[in-house]
Amino acid sequence: MTVADLEDTAEFFTGIRHLLFAVARRMLHSTAEAEDIVQDAWLRWQCCDRDAVRNPTAFLLTTTTRLCLNELQSAHCRRETPLGPWLPEPVDTAADPALRAERADALAATRMVLAKLPPTERSAYVLREAFDYPYRLIAQSVGVSEPNARQLVSRARKHLTAERVASATCP
Predict the structure, then answer these.
(1) How many other β-carbons are positioned within 10 Å of the β-carbon of residue 135?
(2) Short-list 65, 66, 57, CA closest to 14
(3) Same domain assignment for residues 57 and 103
(4) What is the mean pLDDT of the chain?
(5) How many domains does the chain divide into?
(6) Residue 131 gets which letter from DSSP?
(7) Most exposed: 22, 33, 94, 139, by fewest CB within 10 Å?
């Protein structure tokens, strides 16, 4: 690999790094783990045959999603049990009041999504609702068929709707 190739590779990756980080953080609800996943995706991107990759963005998003799923399903993740309700790590929004308001609304929904859905449903739901991914790409990212991806998103919506209805009717 030449220096120019490496610079082009790094420039492309840097351009979509924020998107990869957003997917990883929403799935893992940890900034540190999301950074690790994005770094892993970078290493895989450096080592792969990029000439064989038709859609680099889809490749990197699929890689990131699958790395997140592996992390969520790993033994160490299952052994860890939170002491209380999970609260996401704070994101600095002091510079932009509009961003602060947007984050506050998204935070409540994200907390509920992450707490109530299994990892595969969670990733399918986040890719569809947060990033408006087509079901075909969700299916590739999660490693299921397209009808199964639709079903995962549908189940996630039902779980979340049932939760909202139950909390609204409880005294």
Answers:
(1) 19
(2) 57
(3) no
(4) 80
(5) 2
(6) T
(7) 94
